[in-house]
Amino acid sequence: MKVFVLVSRIPFPLEKGDKLRSYHQVKELHKRHEVFLCCLSAEPIPDGAHEALQEICSQVAFVPLIRWRILTRLMLASMSSRPFQVHYFLQRAARKSVHTLIERFAPDHIYCQLVRCSEYVKHLYTIPKTLDYMDAMNKGMERLAGRSPWYISPLWRIESRRLVRYENLIYDYFDRHTIISKQDQQLIHHPRRQAIQVVPNGVDTSFFEPKGSDAAVYDVVFTGNMSYPPNVDTAEFLAREVMPLVRAEHPKATLLLAGASPHSRVKNLANELTIITGWLDDIRDAYRQATVFAAPMRIGTGLQNKLLEAMSMQVPCVTSRLANNALGATHNEHLMVANGAHETAEAIVHLLNDQHRRLKIAEAGRQFVVERFSWEASSRLLEDVFKETDQ
Questions:
Q1: How is domain 2-202+374-390 classified at the CATH fold level?
Q2: C-alpha 245: how far from its chain's center?
């Protein structure tokens, strides 16, 4: 099968969830199919991106988005009902380039990641198309609005309402649809949302292998793109509300916040016991140094790759009910689930105090992701979706 994959960002380096998903899906699909990866790009092409992506697909192309046109379209967005992110990524010249690439490649199937790319291909009726919602973005924006400053919250609420309408509207332009979890599927406001196929993310369990018996350097670790609002919120929650409660019993307990592009709000958390790393060439270094991995997410949607990675490396995890709803792990067996600062701190303290419990949960967590989350299994589900549209 010839598959044309359209993504809104260059999936390299892998510091964002959508990049990680598209990279591994393309890599797995390429083992059995001819795959053309088409990347929209509002940023300069990262060093090494072309070489890295050529290794995982048959062909790769970068379609630039012009900065001044992005700004113009965002100003015009106030007069439209489309989501701001759709306006941000849509440009006429870029759409023409994408159509030219599709015509030359002559794919059997088009796979479009995220609704923000859907305008590029929605009117191509002669080629079967699958839309990957990935997350229920409307709910993510709604949650973000609830925890944002008063001056930005109304904008997130507007975007949430627009996404509700647009996610519903765009459904009928595509033959098949995928999403990352059952929880997100139920948050798409379309009468046939049950037909959206759940295709979860995976984790490379041979790469994220158990960390071994080296002594941990930090008591609590949290990772992620530290400019992404849900991660910024979690970092502040851990540093300002959870860790003071942990330190009531462990006065010198340390917190490591590791990940790319830390926001100024994250940088301001740094002190003697709270360490901010910024970008790490190998994120496994952060997991290896953790006694406990904590991801008490309060906003956002989707499946948390950071949890899959930490569990795969056999690090005991504490997370929120919101994050675990997508993961489906069992509390007190595969990880610990806690809500609010006091519950989260209690769970962390419990694990810090009980080495036997830490080891038991860490081992069960690793087994859980090995059995349920692999990129190969995920790509097979995706292939089945493609084949259904071709029958």
A1: Rossmann fold (3.40.50)
A2: 29
> Is the predicted pLDDT of residue 213 greater than 70, yes or no?
no
- Non-local (6+) Cβ contacts of 71 within 8 A are none
Hey, what are 120's tokens? 């590029």
Closest CA to 369 of 204, 211, 213, 198: 204
CATH class of the domain whose range is 218-372: alpha beta
Domain segments of the chain as ranges: 2-202+374-390, 218-372
Contact 28, 375 (CB under 8 A): yes
CA distance 238 to 103: 50
What number of helices (H) and strands (E) belong to the chain?
17, 13
Per-residue model confidence (pLDDT) at position 389: 67
Does this model's pTM top 0.90?
yes
What pLDDT, on the 0 to 100 scale, is given for residue 391? 54
Q: How confident is the model at residue 339 (pLDDT cuts 50, 70, 90)?
A: very high
- In the block, tokens 């196929």 appear at 197
User: What does pLDDT average to over the chain?
Assistant: 95
Q: What pLDDT does residue 211 have?
A: 75
Long-range contacts of 357-364 (CB under 8 A, 24+ apart): 357/316, 358/291, 358/292, 358/316, 359/316, 361/316, 361/317, 361/332, 361/333, 361/334, 361/335, 361/336, 362/311, 362/314, 362/315, 362/316, 363/314, 364/333, 364/334
